[in-house]
Amino acid sequence: MMMAGTHFTLIRHAMVAEIARTYLYGIMDVALCPHSLLAEAPMFRALARCLPRPAQWLVTPLSRTVRTAEAIFAAGYAPVSLGVEPALIEQDLGAWQGLPHAALPAKLCRPAHAFWPLAAEERPPGGESMAEVLVRVGAALERLADEHAGGEVVAVSHGGAIRAAVAHALGVGADNALHLSVHNLSLTRLERHPEGWRVVCVNETPGAPAT
Q1: Is residue 210 part of a domain?
Q2: How many domains in the chain?
Q3: Residue 1 falls within a domain, yes or no?
Q4: Do 30 and 58 touch, CB atoms closer than 8 A?
Q5: Could you tell me which of 57, 79, 85, 51 has the C-alpha nearest to residue 185?
Q6: Using an 8 Å Cβ cutoff, are 70 and 18 in contact?
Q7: Between vectors from CA 205 to CA 199 and to CA 152, what angle results, nearest 5°?
Q8: Which positions ≥6 away from 135 have C-beta within 8 Å?
Q9: Is residue 96 part of a domain?
Q10: What is the pLDDT of residues 101-133, one digit of tens each?
Q11: Which of 38, 173, 190, 191 has the highest CB neighbour number within 10 Å of its CB?
Q12: pLDDT tens, 80-106?
């Protein structure tokens, strides 16, 4: 029988401002989209209802994760202190941050991934590859699972880091991770048990409008 483990709920931050979506922002500290924050009010309320209590909450050093957590609190989840976990930050795109998307292909050393602007092994000057993100995030998950053994961890993070977290749990490589689509405000639930990692869900979107 499976023993109690550490439960992780990973939330991708809310949508960033429209201007930021026109360029590669990586670990730049960009603002959230004010219009989306209003339009997504039902999703924030749904998150506030469904997220575990009690839980250790974590954000990254970037304000978009803090603002997302604060919006969930404002929607009905009783506010808690936010721990800052730098290892769950987005992929560092180094010198390519701030480039318009159209300017990137001429700088690549490898063909782009089908579902990401860079190949998994491509390392921007002064930045990191997706393969390196997977190593970074995987080590953080193992450490956090030990620190919060048997507990609940809610982390507001980023698309690249959440892809890496799922890949770590599944034991697959960074190229496979980039095939995952992680929507803004979606939930990814992972568990670490003595028997190993378990992926409970990916891209769950409580309160999303019906399509």
Answers
A1: no
A2: 1
A3: no
A4: no
A5: 51
A6: no
A7: 50
A8: none
A9: yes
A10: 999 999 999 999 999 999 999 999 999 999 999
A11: 190
A12: 999 999 999 999 999 999 999 999 999
Q: How far apart are CA 168 and CA 163, in angstroms?
A: 9
The CA distance from 28 to 93, in Å, is: 9
Query: b/e per residue, 14-23, with b = 16+ CB within 10 A?
Result: bbbbeebeeb
Range of the domain at 181: 6-204
Consecutive H or E run containing 162: helix 159-170
* Inter-residue contact 63 to 29 (CB < 8 Å): yes
Element (H, E) at 187: strand 187-193
CATH code of 196's domain: 3.40.50.1240
- Quote the DSSP letter at residue 118: S
DSSP conformation class of 23: B
CA gap 198, 191 in Å, rounded: 5
